[in-house]
Design a protein that fits this description.
By secondary structure, the protein is α/β, with parallel strands linked by helices. The chain has helices at residues 9-21, 37-43, 54-72, 80-83, 96-101, 103-119, 170-185, 212-236; strands at 25-28, 129-139, 144-154, 157-162, 193-198, 206-208. The longest helix has 25 residues, at 212-236. The protein binds iron/sulfur cluster (SF4). Iron/sulfur cluster is lined by residues 35, 37-38, 41, 244, 246, 249-250, 253, 255-256, 259, 261.
Length: 262
């Protein structure tokens, strides 16, 4: 296995060089609050040795098929052999062994999505639909830009699909709150219903609209975490490695094979 030492002078110098070299640093909404160690690996040029994880694959594939259905009208059908031939993310391909392993979970998500389309009271009339996978961005201080990709957006509702069973997570509320902020900044509306649709339960889909107070409170954390993230990049550019934040996200991290998690 390739030996990569994040703490070596060469790795840290590479991190500094790369960070000094770019005009823009893009921060995705869902990365805010996540482990900055992953960014240290990325900017220092570490090899991504860990293969795609089961949890990452099932979510990415289900999102990909649903997005293709909404945008291009493609069928809600999963073929494990076909999926290995197409990029399901930014240049990401699903390995054969995972394509078969995730089949039950992906098929549950697709079945639930169909049921949800039939049952939801949200107005999904094409006339009111702004789009699927709607990508928005907002300039922050200096060269930082905050980005977000909204799964489904109507003139009145922000919808985010989750591949697990229903759960109440602050991270989801932060995501929805920030998406609304981005929509307002882009003058797509002044206020939106913000709804989560959980697709991972074999008993059926679950639609959940968190309370406004929960989202407002979560957004206080989001603002602080966003500031912390920008500060961490500022320090990385001076050669200071960030704090690591090991947790569930490690199973999805491409650097988990070389990370000591400290
Ligand atoms: S493996 Fe975990 S602790 Fe290490 S960089 Fe990735 S997310 Fe961070």
């Amino acid at each position: 296995m390739t030996k990569f030492d994040l703490y070596s002078e060469s790795a840290i110098n590479e991190m500094i060089r790369r960070l000094k070299d770019v005009d823009e640093i893009r921060i995705h909404t869902t990365s805010v609050g996540g482990c900055m160690g992953r960014e240290a690996f990325r900017w220092s040029g570490a090899p991504k040795l860990a293969p795609m994880h089961f949890w990452s694959a099932k979510g990415t594939v289900a999102h990909h098929i649903i997005e293709k259905n909404i945008i291009d009208g493609e069928p809600l059908r999963y073929d494990p052999d076909e999926i290995t031939k197409v990029a399901v993310g930014r240049g990401t391909y699903v390995p054969q062994r995972l394509a078969h392993a995730i089949r039950p979970q992906v098929e549950t998500a697709l079945k639930n999505f169909k049921i949800w389309l039939e049952q939801t009271e949200i107005d999904l009339d094409p006339e009111n639909l702004i789009g699927a996978e709607v990508r928005l961005e907002s300039p922050l201080r200096g060269r930082y830009t905050l980005t977000g990709a909204i799964d489904l957006l109507t003139e009145k509702v922000i919808i985010d699909f989750k591949n697990g069973k229903k759960s109440y997570q602050k991270a989801y509320y932060k995501q929805l709150g920030n998406y609304e902020r981005l929509c307002i900044e882009h003058e797509l509306g002044t206020e939106f219903q913000k709804t989560l649709v959980f697709l991972g339960d074999p008993d059926g889909p679950q639609e959940y609209t968190p309370k406004a107070a929960s989202i407002k409170s979560a957004m206080q954390f989001f603002k602080k975490e966003l500031d912390d993230r920008m500060r961490a990049y500022d320090l990385m550019e001076q050669g200071v490695l960030p704090c690591f934040n090991p947790g569930f996200g490690c199973s999805l991290c491409p650097y988990r094979g070389i990370c000591a998690g400290v």
